[in-house]
């Protein structure tokens, strides 16, 4: 059939023949196919041999052996010993497949299952077979590597070797056309001698099935590495968010070197200088040398990166503090955020540790590294400066209370002076307020802003009697009766309040509420209402005790009038600022039992005119005390 032009249909025609066999002999369990040897015929032999190799992919009952090394071949036919050798190979297949023969080796010819490049450089490739194979490097003067042919005819195999089921072939250069053929069509090149080796063989020496124009798959996305070294790609700037500042130099199992810029994890070992994030970027805080640990596909390395001063322009600073009101002797910690500008973006940086801190408004306040300590009541200005750019915040420092005014409530009198003792006078904190534990089971709460709290008292006994009293007037919510553990009540206000308990109280808690309570719906329970802000001062004619100020607002003089009944004791009047500091006082005024008045000209005890703002007029006697707000306007 030397002139047969239907060889390209060989596989189709064999499939048709096989189907007819299956019809005639439906019990067929095995078909053994012998791949033809290089010999007489035209240039279609390598194509037909490849079609024979592929039969097993389509038909599971097909078993393949080869005749490429069978002896006594005259170019077209075999002698007696040749056919006997072919029969031996077929017998082993039948013995194993039909009669359960046991062999410690494969009885079929090694068959190629996959060809693929080892790396993306496509200079090395792997051939995988269905059984362990041996690389027959030479046969006489002939070399195995010379009988692999590629789609790119300029490519040659440089060398090769076998390991297990795989053959590795190293090429002279990159193969641009991914195809490979194994052995020639008929003859050794430039000769009339039929090809008879060298071969890739199985464990018994049976040659592997030849193949023709086998596609070579691309390299896997991940190839094994043997080493990884971290190198600095570039210096990074302070405050910047840098990427690809480290490169990894990798060596794969083929000995190829590559550079990796992304896809590996980073960790800054000196967090004072910088912090690495999971996306591979580095947030730099300060200048210096930071050690960076890298991790890539099981390999770890450490490299030192230099952080240089930023070249970005400082736009502004922002000072952040947890609260702008504290009590004298207390402290707070502030942070500073810097806004830097480059040509195309603005980024932020925490610069707490490098700004210059200062505080003004009191000789008893100090700031260091953002930590402010205030030992006296004052209005402070906390300031941070960096490269000529500054920011500041006003901090109100309130005095630590030393006494509580006497307030009459529901028939009970609170002592005129409550002394805060050193062992139980330390402040305890609520969410938005500061409190002190006083003697005689009194609790004082001073708000640091608008106060909306739910108070929960936790007595050690089964019940507890309490009252809630405002520091200005008796205008807050109250509870008068028995209160069980964890029962709550709500209070609102901006001046603060005091809680009195009549039994042992273990502790008190408070939480912020989203909105004020409705004071109009607070139960009366018979408590005394606050004194009205309007008074009728007719001498000894049913006058109510009280205090009034007018005009209010004052500009700047204001008239202060009061009435205290007989046996009211001495009267003292104090003008205080919002921080509780006494700016003007009239002490131990003797007369009582009649209406009294005085004019305040808006000056302090030193004769200095006080600035516009809010002040408080406090009147106190043995049995009563009152407070009125005064607004000074100039």
Structure, explained:
The termini are far apart. The strands form 16 sheets. The chain has a six-stranded antiparallel beta sheet with strand order 36-37-38-43-40-41, with no helix packed on it. It is built from three helices and 51 strands.
What helical percentage do the residues reach? under 10%
Query: What share of residues are in beta strands?
Result: 35-45%
Main beta-sheet strand count, sense and barrel state? 6 strands, antiparallel
> Which parts are unreliable, with pLDDT below 50 for 5 consecutive residues or more?
401-542
User: Which class of secondary structure composition applies to the elements?
Assistant: mainly beta
| Amino-to-carboxy terminus distance | 124 Å
Looking across the biggest beta sheet, what order are the strands in? 36-37-38-43-40-41
What is the CA-based Rg, rounded?
49 Å
The number of distinct helices, counting runs of at least 4 residues, comes to 3
Mean pLDDT: 76
Count of beta strands: 51
Describe the global form: rod-shaped
